[in-house]
Structures are given as C-alpha cells and as structure tokens.
Amino acid sequence: MRRAALLAMAALAMAAPAAASSPAPKTTLPDVEDEVMCPTCGTLLQLAESPQAQDERDFIRREIAQGKTKEQIKDDLVANFGNSVLALPPASGFDLTAYLVPALALLAAAIGIVVGVRRWRRADDAADDDESPLEPGETERLDADLARYDL
Amino acid sequence: MGVLAVVGLLTFGLISKGGNSVDIGQPFPGRTLDSLDGNASESIADYHGRWVLVNLWASWCTPCRDEAPALEQFDRAHAKDNFTVLGVDSKDLTDDATNFVSEFGLTYPQLHDGSGALSDDLGTKGYPESFLVNPRGNLALIRRGAITADYLQTTVAPMLEGKAAQ
Fold first, then answer.
1. Taking the model in full, what pTM does it have?
2. Which of A48, B1, B66, B107 is surrounded by the most beta carbons within 10 Å?
3. CATH, residue B75
4. What's the mean pLDDT when you consider all of chain A?
C-alpha cells in the first residue's frame, strides 16, 4: 500500500512539470471569425465570402502563425477597423447598454408577472369573501323545494 | 419602462444609421483621424487656408488602383497652388494600405479611417470618392467614383487657379 502511494506520488511529480510547460491551446481561425465582422460586407466574417473578407482571414491567419491569442487578434482588428469590427460590442461605455437593457427588460417583465399574479390572487380571494351566505328565509325555501323532489 | 428603453435604442440606431450626405458649399466634416503610419492625428481643420482634395480609397478597391497614379501626378504638379491631395484609407487593413502606398509611390499625406466613420459622415456609397475642399474648409466639388487625369485637369485645376466659380 505504502509502495503504491510512493509510486503514485513519483508519477505525479514527473507529470507536473510537463503539464506546466505545455503550451496554451492554439487559436484557430473559426475561433475568431465567428466573433468579428467583415466591415465592408456588414456581416459576420464567418458568413462573408468577399475578397475583403479573405484579406481579413489572411490577416487573422498571419496573427495566429505569430502565436497571438484570440484577444490579441481581436485587439489588432479593432486597431485596424475600430470597435465596429467586433460582433459583440465591448461591455463598457455606451455599448454596455446592449447588455444591460435586455437584462433590465427581463427583470421588469418578471416583476410585472409576479405583481400581476399577486393582484389576481388577491382579487380572487376578495371575490370568495364577498360570497354572502343564504338569507334565513331562502334556506327554508330551498329545503322545501328540495323536499318536493325527494324520492 | 424596459420597452420604452428598447424602442428608444432602436430609434437611435435607425437615426444614426440613416444616410448622411453633404452638399457643395457646406463645411467639410471635422472628424479627426490617425495618420496611416499611426504617428499623428489630423483633421481637415489642419489644412485650413489650402485647397485639399480628400480622396477616400482602400487597397482592395480596383478603381482606386486605376486613379492613384493620376492623383500623385496632379498633387506634384499643383503643390505650388497651395494644394494637396489628402488620402483617406477606409475600411482597410493598415498593412495592405501601406503596401498600396509604396506600390504606387504616393507621397501625399495619408490618413486611416478603419471603421469608415468619415465615409458615413460624407454619405459615401462606395470607393473611391473624392471631395475638393476650398481654403475656407467648405466643399467645392464632390466626385462619386474614380477620378481621372482628364477630370483633374478640366474640373479641379481651374478651381485651384481661380478660373472656375467656387
């Protein structure tokens, strides 16, 4: 048992430096092209087929060959084309509203539904409370009517 | 409230995407752009007091290749007339644009408008387009499409020499 534990520890010790030195996963063209626009085409680069889109893909391939990460490549595209090259706007400044407004709209809708359901339930309970019992005379008349049909 | 915000944003988007345009006699848009080499920023105001032919181009645009030699030749010939061509590389990769400038030996100043913001200000429909700005900073001519040596000689040159109405 002890020997097995020692062997396991030795194996871990040998594996650890290898894991630490393994390179980060290489960026690929599909990783990038579904997150950036073709500025002249006005569509996602992934869907664009124009010569300008091919130029942009070549640029991305060159950056990948230089070992750049996806974020570095996107930064370089922004330096060339401005923020509009990003398929998703940055989460800062005015562009932050693109993320905040839908979230706030969902929150407002959820609050509206909860408030509406509560009001509806309250109104229903009040209606139940309003159901007045039969008047004494009506009770006797009901009994008499039922007795007539009693078989 | 949320619905109002969404409607407001959509309206803003529609308005801001709406086609801008400029007319002869109007001031040229005062947008500041980086130079193509990235070492400086300039706007048309920096050229106040001079005639400027603002030429919007891109390295991927075939008619831009056709007109580049004529623009360079005209710029050199009319430097004495207080005139310059000002190239604005638009929606283009900086490296491709720099190669284009080297290939055609362009010596006039070049700015970079990667997002096409100035093109939007000018209501540009395609490339190339050229805009002659007078020394007061107002538009004197608009050329949608490629420029030719003949157009430069017969239409632009008389304005620089004061032989045509501005």
1. 0.69
2. A48
3. 3.40.30.10
4. 83
| Chain B residues in contact with A106 (beta carbon < 8 A) | 2
Q: Has residue A78 got a pLDDT over 90?
A: yes
Q: Tell me, what amino acid is at B59?
A: S
Q: Which residue of B has its CA nearest to A95?
A: B9
Sign of the Cα pseudo-torsion (A95, A99, A104, A105, in order): positive
Nearest C-alpha of chain A: how many angstroms from B157?
Answer: 33
In a domain, B7, yes or no: no
Closest CA to B44 of B122, B102, B106: B122
Could you give the CA distance from residue A73 to residue A131 in angstroms, rounded to a whole number?
Answer: 71
How much is the pLDDT for B151?
A: 97
Instruction: Please give the Cα distance from A149 to A141 (Å, whole number).
Output: 13
Percentage of chain B lying above the pLDDT 70 cut: 86
Question: Tokens 């308005």 — which residue?
Answer: B15
- Number of A–B residue contacts, CB under 8 Å: 48
Inform me whether the pLDDT recorded for B68 exceeds 90: yes
pLDDT band at B11 (very low <50, low <70, confident <90, very high): low
Laid out side by side, the sheet with B129-133 consists of: B41-42, B33-35, B110-113, B83-90, B51-57, B129-133, B139-144
Q: Is it the case that residue B117 has pLDDT exceeding 70? A: yes
Where in the sequence is the domain holding B131, given as residue range(s)?
23-160
- The nearest alpha carbon in chain A to B60 belongs to A52
Q: Rounded to the nearest 10 degrees, what angle do helices B94-104 and B62-77 cross at? A: 50
Contact B60 A105 (CB under 8 A): no
- Complex ipTM tops 0.85: no
Asked if the structure places residue B18 within a domain, the reply is no
- How many domains does the structure of chain B reveal? 1
The interface residues of chain A toward chain B in range 69-88, judged by CB-CB distance below 8 A, are 79-85
Is the CB of residue A66 less than 8 Å away from at least one CB of chain B? no
